[in-house]
Here is the input.
Amino acid sequence: METDPIAADTPMGRIMDAYPGARRALFSRYHLGGCQSCGFSDTETLAELCARAGDLDVEEVRAHLVASRQHDESMMISPAELRAELESSSPPLLLDTRTREEHDAVRIAGAVFLEQDLQQQLFAGDPGRRIILHDHSGRHVLDTCAWFLGHGLKNTRALRGGIDAWSLEIDPALPRYRIEID
Here is the structure.
């Protein structure tokens, strides 16, 4: 893993870019970043946020973010690992968490669009079923993966880098696209 990019003077925007699950980690432990009253700007530094939130210990918050990132890493699977699983004798269920429009336009072969009814069926089904979730860039899928894990589906993972990484590393014929609000 690369050198930890978090320091007291690191802007929150850079932390959010480097640690996709940071907002979830900050909200779950400190109630920061989840709503208008506890939000932060991309330019606010970690030290400024900690001071504003009641003089939280910057090092403690930084350590929590690092530990949360390590946990997030354990929930991810690389595109190469996914390809190997899809080619195995018992492939996982590959679920697309993007919008219906994105799924209809570009998709990994065999991916199923995640609808509410399917999610409810999965939550009531086999807790050991292998499930791989993906989104566009891997930035939002960790929240969905945590949701599935929290509902007892302990064999759920998230595709690192999303469909964009899949198209770069595995299937260059798969069209890449850009989302304006990602």
Remarks:
- The mean pLDDT is 92.
- Strands lie at 76-77, 93-96, 112-113, 131-134, 156-159.
- The chain has two domains: 12-73, 76-169.
